[in-house]
Amino acid sequence: MGERAEIEKPVVDAIREAIIRGEFVPNQRLVESDLSAQFTASRANVRIALLELANEGLVERVQNRGARVRAVSLEEAIEISEVRMVVESLCAEKAAERITDEEIGELKALGKAMRKAVASGDVMGYSGLNQELHRRVREISGQHTAGQVLERLRAQSVRHQFRLAMRPGRPSVSLPEHLAIIDAICAHDPAAAAAAIRQHLSSVIEALREAEQA
Question: Residue 78 half-sphere exposure, CB side, CA atoms within 13 Å?
Fold first, then answer.
């Protein structure tokens, strides 16, 4: 069983990353033979990988039509953000309690890089730093189960998040929210860290609704 998992995991990871990067678009059919050739994997391993990705909510099985990339609606993306608000608040609280001096330096350096990216108009760079900050808060918190949940939620809503990140002026809105998260965690203030996360994700939800109406 362990050997099989070692064989399958690279295939699962490769297809997952392709979906997250947008190489496969919502509702696109995922043909086992094509995936087998693209990722140099057996049909059996591709089939198992698609089942795993269906469990994660990235792929859906359609009767008599195989698998396709699952489309996430705006309503579902908002629900995901609401769940993230609860779970990431927990992570922020724990991170504020556990953070070391070395990790404080790391988060402050991330904040500095985010300021620089926004000032220079580097939207893609800022988007990457945004993801890095949220990932590091999860890691610093030590909440492994929460981290796994959040990673799955992030993967499901990534296309909505990317569209939001590309909106003109959005980085200037989210930058002070992210800096507030960093400041609270680095100050070892769990309550303020949780409040900062809630404020940020409330802003994300509002922006998602506005983007859909635009």
Answer: 13
